[in-house]
Task: structure prediction
Amino acid sequence: MAKGWHWDGETPRAESRRKVRDMTLDLWSWLLALSPLALLLVLMIVRNWGAAEAGALSWLATASIAALAFGMSLRDIGMQSVKGAMDALTIVYIIWPAILIYEITREADAFRPLQRGITRLLPHPLLQVMAFGWVFASFLQGITGFGVPIAVCAPLLVSIGVRPVHAVFIALIGHAWNNTFGTLAAAWVGLKQVTDLSPGEEALTALQASVLLWIVNIAAGLVICWMYGRARGVSEGLTAVALISLAHGGLGLVLSQWDDTLNGFLAALAGFVLIFGLGRLPMYRRSSAVRASPMFAGSAPSSGRAGGTGSGEDAATGTPSSGGRRAAPATGVGLTGGREAEASTTAREMPLGTAFLPYTALLGITLVILLIPPIERTLGGISVGLGFPPFTTGLGYATPAETSEMAVFTHAGTFLLAAAVVTYLCYARMRYLAKGAWKRALARTADKAIGATIAVLALVSMAAVMQGSGQASTLAQGVADWTGGVYILLAPFIGLFGTFITGSNLSGNLLFGPLQQTTATAAGLSGPAVLSGQTAGGALGAIISPSKVLLGTTTAGVSGREGEVLRMALPVTLLLTAVIGAVVFFFA
Amino acid sequence: MNPTNRIQAVATLVTVAALPFLYIGGRTDTAALTAIGMAVFALGMLVCPVLQHPPRILRRRPHRTAAAPSQHPARNR
Result:
């Protein structure tokens, strides 16, 4: 910040004093820039505040520091906050329809047949969790992204009996690897746009990023197994993890050299097909050796014809079940009150395909719109947005003119909303919905989504002010300047930080991609290695990004418990980022 | 809608109401509009933390009435 004031004829002693002063000022600026994030984490993790409350106070801290220490005018803070609100709209527009889908599904009591059907196809409880939390989440990330996998898969996991906080974490870690090449490689394309790479360097970066993301993918599978049953869980799930990660990571790696926009989608699709094949293997049709998985509510995960876990407890009620035979899992945030009895009658009649209708509709709508170019071009051309003028802070940090746009008809929220409408109409026509279902579904959606709305508004506005004031760059630049030779080890942490504050691997790459490349060139490091570390770290940042955590806690019915999810996610994410850093060091 | 959600709904509405002031104030360089927008935005942001986790100074003391004796043992003698 105070760097660069230097005059000719400076004595060595004065130069030495200036260096110390500059360093002190830089350190001071760096600590100030860090303080809103530290406040956010302390309030959420240590004080157990919800994101709505912690985010709001952190926005205030960020705005105050931007004005007082970074020379940002009130006008620019206001404009950046509006820009943040516009960006928040793109997230909120996913949250509301995602919850609406969940509520309509719940009104039709489709979670019970869904759980029964999946139990029949995948009798092993661990495979069920992998199917929803890893494979299906990755598949959705391959197409839609923008938090949809978390919003959809967390409640699905809860519906098969997984504890809500665990469900959110599993969906977060399960989809993370596909953040770079998923969503038709939006984050990867963004990274290429803002950096200056030759075709050969692009291919090498894609290859190295694919290797790093494969590691993230394997780690996700192993973490799910560990959560399911510690060492015994890992032992049971090892074959599935090896094969699924081969489809996800291995195929992704090969395809990255062929088509770097479709590889995430195709690899995730391969994994999705594969898991149903795995369900036919004798080892996954036998009863699980894990007796009381800490992952499941109650203690008994469902186990179809394999005959339960033998824990002797019904996960839904905590009461003993019949002799270790098939134990019905909890429906998590499922049905309540008098509707339950009525719904359970209809549930028996609903086939699996019908129960899966919301997700089939979502996939169908998304694929038709995004993969047919004329439709995509026509609908993608319609957008709403606001323009923001350029500005420079008192300390000289310049932000160019920007337009915050949302392509309404190709936005993931529209796909979800359309899927919700289709689902409602189909279920109503099939008579799975009772009278007044839409009113109840809408009321409960508003109840669940309102907290997330203010929280996202606060967090994204805070991130926008951090970016506009130069606080985000100060943090990243400080790390780059002070780490010297070990910078390459920390490159993924900058990627992680970018996604953490923006909530998107794409935005993180746009924000820090050029900085990473410049630093790599200045330090004589391999550009592809550093950039692959940036985007892999960014993918990992999606696990702890507060806006994504919020999506999960809201749809899983545990709003306000974001701190618990972060406590679970943070150590794993930081450890994985360090591992990625070590591999990047090896690449360089 | 439970009380927490009601508070959050009000906070959201107040915050959103500030956005036109901030945007128009920023585009037209009108300091008064920006100042109003910032004040309303900050108010909206602070509603949730202040009402959910009120500072000690704002916390209400337990209300004592004649019918409800004090919890303090010395005062009930």
Observations:
- Chain A is about 70% helix and 0% strand.
- The beta strands of chain A are 384-388, 391-392, 398-399, 402-406.
- The longest helix of chain A spans residues 199-256.
